Amino acid sequence: MIKTSNNEEVESPALPPELLISVFLSKPPPVPLFTDQPTCHLQPPPWPAMLPAMSMQLVSCVGKGSPTCLGESSQNHLMAQQEVKLLGFWASPFAYRVIWALKLKGVDYEYIEEDVFNKSPLLLQLNPLHKSVPVLIHGHRVICESFVIVQYIDETWPQYPLLPQHPYERAMARFWAEFAESKLMESAWMGQCSRGEERERAAKLAMETVEKIEELVKGKKLFGGESIGYLDICLGWLSYWLPIWEEVGCMQIIDPIKFPATSSWIDTVLHHPVIRDNLPAREAMIVYFQKRRKDIYESRTGLRV
C-alpha cells in the first residue's frame, strides 16, 4: 500500500516486468568465492523514496528461502547468457572433461591456459584451497573441481542433458565417476610413475577396477545409452590418457581380449566428434608424461634415471 497526497492508502501498482528485468541486468556486487549467500544479489534501488513499492519488491528477493523476483526459467536464461571462462592446462584430463561438457552443450567460452608449474595470481585467487585447474568462471560465479563443474554446466544449460533424469540413476552415475577416479586413475598414475614390483602392484589394482567397469558397460554402446553422457565424460580419460600412460609406463591395464566391452566403449568415445576434435596432440603428451615419470621417480627415490 502507498499513501496519496491526501493521506489515503491505495494498493501499490505492480511493477512492469521490463522494469524488474532492467534492475536484474545491472552489475551485481562482488561475490566471495565460497559463500552461503543466495544467488540473487541485488543492490537496493537509488530511489526508494520515489518508488517505495519497487524498493519493497526488490528487498523481498534477498535472503535465504525467500522467493525470487523473476521466474525460474527467466533466471536460468539470464544465467546462461553470462560470460564463461575456463582456466585449464593442455595435458589435464580434468580440464578436458569440462571442455567436452561445454562443447556438447554448445556453450561459447574463453579458454585461459595455465602453467601448473608456475601458477598465475588469477588461479591462486580463484582456487585458493586446491590451487589447481580446472576453474570455471560464469559471470561473477567461480566453480572448482571437474566433477562439480560438469554437474553445474548440466544444470545451468538444459540443452543436451548429461546426467540421467531419475534420481537413482543420477546417484549411480556420480558414484561410478568417483569410484573410477579414486581407484583406477590413482593406481594407473602410480603404475606409470613407478618401476618394478610397485608398478606391477599398481597395474594389478587398476585392472581389478577395470573388471568392475567392464561389467557396468557390458551390453551398452555408451554409459549414457545411445548418446554420450555424464559418466562417459568423467571416464573419457580412459580412452586417451590411459593408453599413453600404459605406453610411458611399459604396462598393460586394458587388454582388449579380457575387457572387450570396455575396449568397444573406448573406441566409441574416441570416434565421437566432440571428443575426437578436442584432444591434445598425442606426441606432445608422450613427451610430457615421459618427463613427468622421470621427474617423479627421481624425486621419490633420489635415483637418477
From TrEMBL:
Q: Which UniProt keywords apply?
A: Transferase
Against InterPro entries, the record matches this protein to: Glutathione-S-Trfase_C-like, Glutathione-S-Trfase_C_sf, Glutathione_S-Trfase, Glutathione_S-Trfase_N, GST_C_Tau, Omega/Tau-like, Thioredoxin-like_sf
Q: Which reaction does it catalyse?
A: RX + glutathione = an S-substituted glutathione + a halide anion + H(+)
Using the record's annotation, list all stretches that form the GST C-terminal domain. 166-289
Reply yes or no: does the keyword Translocase apply: no
Q: Which GO terms describe its molecular function?
A: glutathione transferase activity
Top EC class of this enzyme: transferase
PROSITE patterns to which the protein is assigned, alphabetical: GST_CTER, GST_NTER
Q: List where the protein spans the membrane.
A: none
- Enzyme Commission designation: 2.5.1.18
Identification of the protein by name: glutathione transferase
Q: What species is given as this protein's source?
A: Vitis vinifera (Grape)
